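Re-run with default settings, no changes from the original entry. Doing this only to confirm the output is reproducible before filing.
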Amino acid sequence: MRIFDLNSITFVQILCLSGMKANYIFKLALFLALSAAVSCSSRPKYVDIGGYAQGGIYNVRFNIRDASVSKNEIAVRIDSILTLVDTTLSGYNKASLLSRFNEGESIMPNSLFKDIYAYCHELYEETDGCVDVASGPLFDLWGFGFSNDSLPDAAAVKSAMASCGMARLKADIDLALDDSGRLDPRELLLCPSVDATLPKLNFNAVAQGYTCDLVAEYLSSVGVKDMLVDIGEIYCAGKNPRGEGWSIGVDRPVDGNDSPGAMLDGIWNSEGRSCGIVTSGNYRKFYIRDGKKYAHTIDPRNGYPVEHHLLSASISASTAAASDAYATYCMVLGPEAAKEFILSRPDIEGYLISGSNEAMSEWASDGFSITLNR
């Protein structure tokens, strides 16, 4: 038997092969060539799209094999999503709808503004006020919002508390719109009055996770199945380039660990699930006054930074927005109450690190797949 490399011979050579019918050889060569083409087209092809957004670097890695549009078109659409979020929800963009609303200006809210507001009102009810986006003045007061003030006295906290709370606001923005569809901040108050303090919102507890979900929804709509969307928080689905679940590092919550991935506590694996994964902690945004640490997690129920020993909470939920919100919720609750919350919810998994820089302890729910870095 003679063995031929059909990928290297020409059609003329096929016709000259001794003892074999040229028609058969041609069909065989054509079949192998088509099979190779199909095989190549079915191979995963991962690409990256990244840049600067929401105060940091973002990166979207996905398998473009099943996408119905080109990488360039996807990049343009992702950029438009990020621009929409920035011009709608950013408290740092002074021209955004949120900033203008917080200044007391009447705005024309788009569907994005309405949707995230409705979701945050639901979160307020669900978390008994622990996640309260209408507590913007408190975060500003303590220097963790859109201003640099810090260490207020009790009178200042009490005054800020009087102007905070989703309980003061209507659950449905549409009920506050005028006939032209504009929203006057005063009309969003349940009890509007001339001397009432206008509401100020801060969507930071959910905005990055929400943005991840928007990008993931778009990618899914054009056929992408395998993806990792990292925009400060993370959403992932399907498999990574190695054909495995996505692996995400969980940072060691040591005070001053400002470089993600530089000091890891462990590696979480998605195991192929479609989900968000978000860590919230008090080891990056804090300051120390008179030997006492003041962290950026503010309890909206009392107006003060939390003082328990939960250092970080990592939550995996069906969406990145929910993961983001529930991680914040756990950080407000503290270690024991957070553990009870996670165990009460079959739709989420969690990982808590408590203690101090010198002595930390970890707890993970049964479905939180993490390999400790020990």
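The first strand starts at residue 46 and ends at 53. The chain has ten helices and 15 strands.
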